[in-house]
Amino acid sequence: MSQKKEKKGLKIVTIGGGSSYTPELIEGFIKRIKELPVTEIWLVDIEEGREKLEIVGNLAKRMVKKAGIDCEVHLTLDRRKAIKDADFVTTQFRVGQLAARIKDERIPFENGLLGQETNGAGGMFKAFRTIPVILDIVSDIKELAPNAWLINFTNPAGIVTQAVLNYTDFDKIVGLCNIPVHTQMDCASLYEKDVTEFRFQFAGLNHFVWYRVWDKNGNELTADLWEKRQDKKNLGVKNIVSINYDYDQIKDLGMLPCDYHRYYYLQDEMLKEGLKSFKEKGTRGEIVKKVEEELFELYKDENLAEKPKQLEQRGGAYYSDAACELISAIYNDKGIIMAVNTRNKGAVSDLPYDAAVEISSYITADGPIPITFGKFPNAGQRGYIQLMKAMEELVVKAAVTGNYYTALQAFATNPLVPGTTVGRKVLNELLDAHEKYLPQFRDYYENREKYRK
Amino acid sequence: MSQKKEKKGLKIVTIGGGSSYTPELIEGFIKRIKELPVTEIWLVDIEEGREKLEIVGNLAKRMVKKAGIDCEVHLTLDRRKAIKDADFVTTQFRVGQLAARIKDERIPFENGLLGQETNGAGGMFKAFRTIPVILDIVSDIKELAPNAWLINFTNPAGIVTQAVLNYTDFDKIVGLCNIPVHTQMDCASLYEKDVTEFRFQFAGLNHFVWYRVWDKNGNELTADLWEKRQDKKNLGVKNIVSINYDYDQIKDLGMLPCDYHRYYYLQDEMLKEGLKSFKEKGTRGEIVKKVEEELFELYKDENLAEKPKQLEQRGGAYYSDAACELISAIYNDKGIIMAVNTRNKGAVSDLPYDAAVEISSYITADGPIPITFGKFPNAGQRGYIQLMKAMEELVVKAAVTGNYYTALQAFATNPLVPGTTVGRKVLNELLDAHEKYLPQFRDYYENREKYRK
Amino acid sequence: MSQKKEKKGLKIVTIGGGSSYTPELIEGFIKRIKELPVTEIWLVDIEEGREKLEIVGNLAKRMVKKAGIDCEVHLTLDRRKAIKDADFVTTQFRVGQLAARIKDERIPFENGLLGQETNGAGGMFKAFRTIPVILDIVSDIKELAPNAWLINFTNPAGIVTQAVLNYTDFDKIVGLCNIPVHTQMDCASLYEKDVTEFRFQFAGLNHFVWYRVWDKNGNELTADLWEKRQDKKNLGVKNIVSINYDYDQIKDLGMLPCDYHRYYYLQDEMLKEGLKSFKEKGTRGEIVKKVEEELFELYKDENLAEKPKQLEQRGGAYYSDAACELISAIYNDKGIIMAVNTRNKGAVSDLPYDAAVEISSYITADGPIPITFGKFPNAGQRGYIQLMKAMEELVVKAAVTGNYYTALQAFATNPLVPGTTVGRKVLNELLDAHEKYLPQFRDYYENREKYRK
Amino acid sequence: MSQKKEKKGLKIVTIGGGSSYTPELIEGFIKRIKELPVTEIWLVDIEEGREKLEIVGNLAKRMVKKAGIDCEVHLTLDRRKAIKDADFVTTQFRVGQLAARIKDERIPFENGLLGQETNGAGGMFKAFRTIPVILDIVSDIKELAPNAWLINFTNPAGIVTQAVLNYTDFDKIVGLCNIPVHTQMDCASLYEKDVTEFRFQFAGLNHFVWYRVWDKNGNELTADLWEKRQDKKNLGVKNIVSINYDYDQIKDLGMLPCDYHRYYYLQDEMLKEGLKSFKEKGTRGEIVKKVEEELFELYKDENLAEKPKQLEQRGGAYYSDAACELISAIYNDKGIIMAVNTRNKGAVSDLPYDAAVEISSYITADGPIPITFGKFPNAGQRGYIQLMKAMEELVVKAAVTGNYYTALQAFATNPLVPGTTVGRKVLNELLDAHEKYLPQFRDYYENREKYRK
Fold first, then answer.
1. pLDDT band at A310, cuts 50/70/90?
2. How distant is the Cα of D391 from the closest Cα of chain C, in angstroms?
3. Contacts of D253 in chain B (CB under 8 A)
4. What is the pLDDT of residues B397-432, one digit of tens each?
5. Is C449 part of any domain?
6. What does the pLDDT read at residue C445?
7. Binding-site residue positions of C
């Protein structure tokens, strides 16, 4: 039994602290300092990220200093020291850095498949690399800071959350994504009203979530919003090509999709567009790499002591602010609704009880409680999401066990992999490319000929 | 498709407006007038209740006048006229008045069974009498005020809600009970803190609900509260004898029971105590009748223009205030948590999807959304509540169809009826006693010899 | 309540009696005449099939005569007269004849999609045409022969069964496919043993069914059989290209797939192969047309009085014999196990209670009872089959309601349709091509411009 | 992975071999010797049963010798030696012998509760004593005879099966009861037909099972059989008082109950009758003790070489023959239907997936497969059986863990225990009475004062 929790100055630990997003996180804490008494921020990174950690860490220190708040920023490569007695641990690391992402995107594209960071073959490999590290972190937290909450926004955030929920006895994880925040902001801007004038209900999986929306008088606006969204190219996250959904098909679903559903409902067009872009401009990872280098140049400026505007152009805007809001909601037992990744427990009837789902949840000091969603209104949603969850389970199992055949099965089940022949080829090429970061697949590396037949 | 809902002055209709509880309701509206602009209150009753309606209705008028608010109180026997264009309809009627309750209690006791208003044989008959009337009211609302919400606190509130959810296509019903409010107040008083310092999670059925409690730092207090509640005889609703539960058995359950669980977990003691009290003092209905007569004497006083203190001594205290709070929460899309009776939709995994459950719900302008509870922590709760829900379904089906055999099956399934021999005898005697109010059981009345073998 | 069933001479009705398969059916009855006293066989067809009905019907008469059994063969275009007092009705008709099938295959192929009779776009349209006719037949049976069993082997047999189970109150339908029979025969031939030396357990959907196998000592042979099946090109039904599955992926599944899973697990290869064959040889329907014409030439031979060997070369071999066996099993309360399409009722935990499933069932005089399968051993199977069932539900709903948007949703959900852009184009072209046979889609035909945006 | 199973001479082990039922078992093997080549029968007992083992064992030897079959009968107190390489292990032992049963019956009766061998307080204690021993036996089987099947007919057979299914990874257990056999025989005798002329479907829990029945033409006879059973006092097992059920209530259920449902549906009458009989004649256990002593006197007769007629007067008639039939059905992969206790796996929708259920099952060489039952037709059945299963889970958990509070919860949940006050008293008295056989409740015995408050 862990000791009784009490209110006090908070120690926050950010793993992957050298990320370019860190300034948004720092800004988020600064602006909430009255309701959320953060006294220590520990930015943790690994040796390969030391330089970036120092650049962004020093910016963080300048930001805190300028804000005049009573908070110390620590930079460290010693994860265990950082975690010790933490109140909240956030994770925003990328195993293998952008170089690994570029491979995740390039190899599928070279084989005629979609190459994308969190979907299809690349998304599954991001999970394979990330999950063992998250499980290590959870192990540290259980030992060194058993009362801490783990706020994960390392992608694929839903699959990572599922891994922790299904392969550890640690329940205090919340997975967070910026898609629901984006969606709400888009809605508010289309109606030219404040976001608080709406009530949203999200239900689904991370990057595969649907939603409905109501006004404050209880009138449902979902169909009206769908009408309003047509031909508004500037909506949605920046990293997804904004091809229009089939208006009627979505309307028939009775709920609106997130940006990522395009990869499935517009599969051939998104693939064609992706292949074209890949040939012309290379991978998204390569583009992001340049943006990041520019950001770090900015961050080096010793006169800079606030989050630069340019950061908002990154695909992940709002992520860090949402994390700060979630931390505050837990700390203050706020009872607000946020869409997070958490254990289903029956909230979405069409998915397993212990599945991680992305769902509008009531945030308490004891964590998020999903508000009950029930059954999907349309068999189309139900079938597709059940397939996606099955695929996620296989990905998690392969990531944890390193079983090659389970990984192959995950590929066979992923709707963006059109068959096992090309699927197995891509699987093998990605395994070969990421050997350094996939120690659990040792048997594959030691017996390649056995697996490559 | 109903018209778009907008904010405006509200018309409230109270069916069973001649109830002695009405002053609490009026007080509830008066004190919320700034957030809840009630401009019309229609108190409706039937011919048999005309006198009480006038007495309490005139008190209501005096209360409103004294408060100086812009609201008209109407008294009427014309239910349809009252319902026309209503915003909220509340129901607090008692079919057959207290005379019927007294029979519900007396006849079981005379046969050696528990005689109680909402549990056992009596509770089932209260449902048989009430459900046809509620279904009529729903039919009127659908025709005359399709945007209105029906707030039912006529007992058995859960079973009545189930009838509407399962036998009509009307979804805008919320069943309300004062037990959760009482429970929260008791907790606050034991800790000598404000009730807002706690977070409660209720899950179960009306009069068969369990709960857990946390402080604002996320520490669970359930076991501690159980310790604190020991030997505090003044807790709980006034109408239930306060015999102590087995401390260890409840602790093992992992959630705390409501007052009514005593009839089940302490079955023989409660029966013995009930029979003793019946012999010495007659039925609870007879006692209440006297209390009510005294209240109405008070209400007649033309100088009285507020809710008299004595009303709080009735078992149903807090009911009406909870109703006003619920109405305000819906009207204002408050997003607060209240324990209400609503459709399960998977919130309580151990109960059917379409069952009415009593559960902590997030209250929106579109009605309550249960917060997800999941599975009960203990097989003991699960098994018992599944039996209770099955019994409730049989009661609803018998009430709607008037099928004698279904009623007999409900008796055979009710844990407070120890077998079909005595059960059938009591069933027949109650049917005979309530003939006037049970038109749906026509076949029984026309063919008694067939059913009485 | 229907009258009591008793043993007597049986009246069998075959709708689509002009089919080239009829001789196998007749042979099946002849060889079982001692256990199954068929005294009347009514072959029913429509005006367009009159010539074929007469040719094959006369062959049937010669076969029966040669066998010397006491059974009359009737040929008729009057379906209701035939159904009157029938004991078993079998259905093997094809709405729109082979010309419609050819369109189902050609149009998808012309748009770069798989063109196949029972899968993908073509399979969905076969359902759209067939379901309204089946519902009419069920309506006739309920009126004219309420004790009769409907044995459906019109494809897509599973979806057609689902339509009857979900949109009528008629329960006495069994859907039948030759795939499980084929599978069992293939196994027996690989082991060079009699088929009775094995016990099979099938579970899934029609044309999407998996199986395991045991010997009579209870040793599971599934993995061993998988090993044995490798590189045996002559296995499986004749109408599916026999590309090898990924050996390891299937082994990991823990159950063996049917031939049709290739369209999903080997999606790109099967599509490539299909397109190649289409370009070189035209559609499968066109090939079958020639085979049929040759068969009917044979059937015309007045000296022919038995099923010609050539019939076994058709893809549907064993179908009719399986139907006779099923009829005998019901009539004789045999208690044998057959894989049929019937209501799930929980037998396959991962599919809805009321879904039609293809499952090993215990055959009684009261129909098939699925033997309990439980959960699929692998998430890969679970997810895929849940998607397929959702798609089937949408197909049935679109077929019954004629709702264009539901049809579009079915296309969006079908894994063989790679997105809504091409999907909607193919949907429209197929609707246009089949106008004569799709009266339920009236609104589309009257308002094409509305739907074609 | 266990070795491959093959047909060969069989070694049968019977634990509790000194039971008076053993001659029926031996007879069962003798009459099936052609289909079931039993070559070794090992009768195992403990020191306390040595004398009975020798008496009945010698009778068994004489029976085998007289039959002239090639089979050796071994008598031993060495359980592990017996189990080594066994093919089938049957269990019919009684922990604490009849003396323990007498306490299970006497103590509840003395406290005004039903005292019965397998129901209520006594039944729960029989489970507490038996389960640890069964788990030991399973452990031995896994080590010494991993291919063996365990056929358990030690009561409470369903709860014991549940313990093995939920607390070990051993799946090869089948629980067997004579109630379904009895029921089928009663039906056949009422219709004066052979039992093979009927098809039965049983579903429920051991000693809480319902059934339906059909003739060979598929006509359901359930209601007709219920009519026929009225006032036939000589039906049912011998050990249950044959008070008539309420005819109408059972008819409304849509399925017929077993004899044991009387304890629940006729609770007060059965209790009254039980208390009367207890006062007049003592416990059932005491009566059985005398019957057994008489049987053993018979068995001693060296001229006796067959099962004596008098054995059929014992309540457990048909048990052993059913066991032989089950063993033969498994050995021969018979594919017959028998009602056994096995894992639910969704067969009964209203019960948990992993629950032990008593259900008509298809018997294969790989064990029983439940035939799918679906949902109970009546909420009355559903609710009651869900309560019973919850109670069984608590009993199993208490038996395995020795947790006093779990045992108390089981008592609180058992419908035959009317409340925790008397329940706890009886629990304590039974714990005290059975100390010798309940080592798992060590903490209670060492800290009685703590538990007795």
1. confident
2. 24
3. 409
4. 999 999 999 999 999 999 999 999 999 999 999 999
5. no
6. 98
7. 101, 155, 177, 207
Measured at the CA of D110, the angle between CA D105 and CA D114, to 5 degrees, comes to: 50
Contact residues of D toward B, CB < 8 A = 245-246, 248-249, 251-253, 265-270, 378-380, 382-384, 386-391, 393-394, 397, 405-406, 408-410, 412-413, 415, 418-422, 424, 451
- Residue C335 burial (10 A CB sphere; 0-12, 13-18, 19+): middle
> Do A and B touch (≥3 CB pairs < 8 Å)?
yes
Each residue's pLDDT tens digit, D363-421: 999 999 999 999 999 999 999 999 999 999 999 999 999 999 999 999 999 999 999 99
What is the C-alpha separation between D92 and A69, in angstroms, rounded?
76
pLDDT digits (tens, 9 = 90+) for C4-24: 777 679 999 999 999 999 999
Whose CA is closest to D137, among D97, D102, D95, D96?
A: D95
pTM for this entry: 0.96
Residue C71 sits in a domain whose CATH number is: 3.40.50.720
Predicted confidence (pLDDT) per residue in B13-43, tens digit:
999 999 999 999 999 999 999 999 999 999 9
Report chain A residues whose CB lies below 8 A from the CB of C420.
245-246, 249, 265-266
Residue C299 falls in the annotated catalytic set: no
Chains in contact with A via at least 3 Cβ–Cβ pairs below 8 Å: B, C
Domain assignment present for B126: yes
The whole-angstrom separation of Cα B369 and Cα A124 is: 35
**What residues of chain B score a pLDDT lower than 50?**
1
Residue D138, token pair as written in the block: 């399973």
Q: How far is B437 from chain D (nearest CA, A)?
A: 24
Best of B247, B271, B376, B386 to substitute, by most chain D Cβ atoms within 10 angstroms, is B386
Straight-line distance from the first to the last Cα atom of chain B, in angstroms, rounded to the nearest whole number: 51
Query: Would you state the pLDDT for residue D1?
Result: 40
Which are the contacts of A365, defined by CB distance < 8 A and separation ≥ 6? A5, A330, A331, A332, A333, B199, B214, B215, B216, B217, B218
Query: Does residue B148 belong to any structural domain of this protein?
Result: yes
| Beta pairing partners, C362 | C337, C369
- To test the contact with chain C by mutation, choose from D1, D88, D194, D217 the residue with the greatest count of C C-beta atoms within 10 A, namely D217
- Taking an 8 Å cut-off on Cβ atoms, the answer to whether B386 and D391 are in contact is no
Query: Residue B79's domain spans which residues?
Result: 10-173
**Domain-located, residue B266:** no
Cβ distance of A374 and B345 shorter than 8 Å: yes
Mean pLDDT score, D342-346: 98
DSSP structure string for B147-216: T-EEEE-SSSHHHHHHHHHHHSS---EEE--SHHHHHHHHHHHHHTS-GGGEEEEEEEETTEEEEEEEET
As annotated, the active-site residues of D are 260
Contact C430/C424 with Cβ under 8 angstroms? Answer: no
Task: Report the domain count for chain D.
Answer: 1
Amino acid at D245: Y
Rounded CA-CA distance C85/A67 in Å is 90
Query: How far is the C-alpha of A367 from the C-alpha of A334, rounded, in Å?
Result: 10
Q: For tokens 């056989």, what's the residue?
A: D437
Cα–Cα distance measured from residue D86 to residue D79, given in angstroms and rounded to the nearest whole number:
11
Find residue A76's DSSP bridge partners: A44
* Per-residue pLDDT band at A16 (split at 50, 70, 90): very high
Phi and psi angles of residue C213, each rounded to the nearest 5 degrees, phi first = -145, 145
* Separation of alpha carbons D442 and D444, rounded Å: 5
* Residue in C260, C318, C331, C444 annotated catalytic: C260
Rounded to the nearest angstrom, the minimum Cα separation between B372 and chain A is 5
CB contact under 8 A, D266 and B382: no
C28-65 residue pLDDT tens: 999 999 999 999 999 999 999 999 999 999 999 999 99
Cβ–Cβ gap A364/B199 under 8 Å: yes
ipTM: 0.95
